[in-house]
Amino acid sequence: MMTHLLPNTPLRGIIPPLVTPLLDNDTLDVEGLERLIERLIAGGVHGLFILGTTGEAQSISYQLRRQMIEETARINRGRLPLLVCISDTSITESLNLARLAEQQGADAVVSAPPYYYAPSQVELAEFYLDLAERLPLPLFLYNMPSHTKVSFDAATVRAIARHPRVIGFKDSSANAVYFQSVMTAMSDRPDFALLMGPEEITGEAVLMGAHGGINGGANMFPQLYVHLYEAAACGNLEELRRLQRIVMRISSTIYTVGRFGSSYLKGVKCALSLLGICNDHMAAPFYKFKEPERERVRQAIIDILKEKL
């Protein structure tokens, strides 16, 4: 199988965590997905990441997850690296998704810890070493403690990364001190990819040596996040400050229209709907914004598009 991931070379750049466009709770908005992927590719992103938190994976059926893998692979046509999230409480279901991902030509899988019974660090290492041994593809670890109730200790990341199939780490803790501890623990592994989830601190993470970002806002404004990464990677601090201000405006407007934990995702999907990209249906238990909230997102988009992205 051809792969975009080169041996001993970390994946770099902006790899958007795609929303899963839905027409209803169990119907994929395929045309919307096509528009989204083409928009991302035209925007210069460096890879595609599906079925993560932004993709509402834990709220949709296994059949829909399988369709999302198949349709994304079909639309992508091997143009960009494709990462598929296989997080689940069942290792069997994770392996089922991983096998399909491999069959469809994906480049790697991503896994957050099983999120019902919280494992210890010893159990976490045992689980991932077992999983990695059985996977058909390389593996990125995914730290998402707000949803999984457990965080990878830096030493645990290092222990798991001894397995040759474990090639990277995505951190969505929003804890810059923690991320630095992982970077320090892995400092002798230049082949190991270190990717930041929260876009608000992606620029500074890349300045300090991270390899890129898996940023939800890139669904809406891919070029902005690509330029942010490029400015940080080459140390252009003046441009990085300018772009960071726009990123923070997105964070403080589109992501805060609602008052709940779902506000970020509702904001992204609402914005994509207003931009004419895809439907904004939310998988249960959540529901899309009503008109007053949509108007606030619409105004935020108008203001953001006045900037040079």
CATH fold annotation: TIM Barrel
Proportion of residues in extended strands:
5-15%
N-C termini distance: 36 Å
| Continuous helix count | 12
Question: Which structural category fits the helices and strands?
Answer: alpha/beta
Order of helices and strands: EEEHEHEHEHEHHEHEHEHHHH
Provide the spatial order of strands within the biggest beta sheet: 1-10-9-8-7-6-5-4
**CATH level 4 superfamily:** Aldolase class I
Shape: globular
Outline the biggest β-sheet: 8 strands, parallel
Integer tally of domains: 1
Structural Rg = 18 Å
By CATH reckoning, the class would read Alpha Beta
Helical fraction? 40-55%
Number of strands: 10
CATH architecture: Alpha-Beta Barrel
Low-confidence stretches: none
Provide structural commentary.
The chain is an alpha/beta fold and 309 residues long. The protein has one domain (13-237): Aldolase class I (TIM Barrel), CATH 3.20.20. It is built from twelve helices and ten strands. The chain has helices at 30-42, 62-76, 91-103, 121-134, 145-148, 154-160, 176-185, 202-207, 222-233, 237-253, 263-274, 291-305, and strands at residues 13-14, 22-24, 27-28, 48-50, 82-85, 108-111, 139-143, 166-171, 193-196, 212-213. Strands 1-10-9-8-7-6-5-4 form an eight-stranded parallel β-sheet. A hairpin with a 2-residue loop joins strand 2 (22-24) and strand 3 (27-28). The mean pLDDT is 97.
